[in-house]
Amino acid sequence: MKYLSAYALAWLSGKTSPTVKDLEAIISAIGGSFDKQLAETVVESLQERDLSQVIRAGFPKLQVGGGSVSVSASAAPAADTKADDAKKDEKKDEKKDEEADFDGALDMFGGDDY
């Protein structure tokens, strides 16, 4: 994905046919690792193609919120709810223990009222 993004950035900056060196410069500028083989694959696949047309052709495939999702709910056994309740109780106990570890440390801002 970062190679496609770098290609798009180079294209948007005015380069009609970005090169592997362009992608390397963009990716290394942000401290990312660079794989020359992947960059070559991206450049070769998009070479001599208008990126705006490629993007326009891909929009129908994105279907943000247009798809249908089926969710099936099943009744949880009673044993699972008891286990969940026990976990919640353990978390409450852990939180109390953590607060005790800071005993007096919160006083630096004017008292224990937090």
Structural topology:
Layout: H1 2-12, H2 20-29, H3 36-46, H4 51-62, H5 78-101
Helix pairs in contact: 1-2
Structure description:
This protein is mainly α and 114 residues long. It has a domain at 2-62: Orthogonal Bundle (Arc Repressor Mutant, subunit A). It is 60% helix and 0% strand.
Poorly predicted ranges: none
Report the radius of gyration as a whole number of Å.
27 Å
**How many helix segments?**
5
Distance between the termini: 44 Å
In brief, what are we looking at here?
Residues 99-114 have a biased composition (Acidic residues). With 114 residues, the chain is an all-alpha fold. 60% of the residues lie in helices and 0% in strands.
Index terms:
mainly alpha, Arc Repressor Mutant, subunit A, about 110 residues
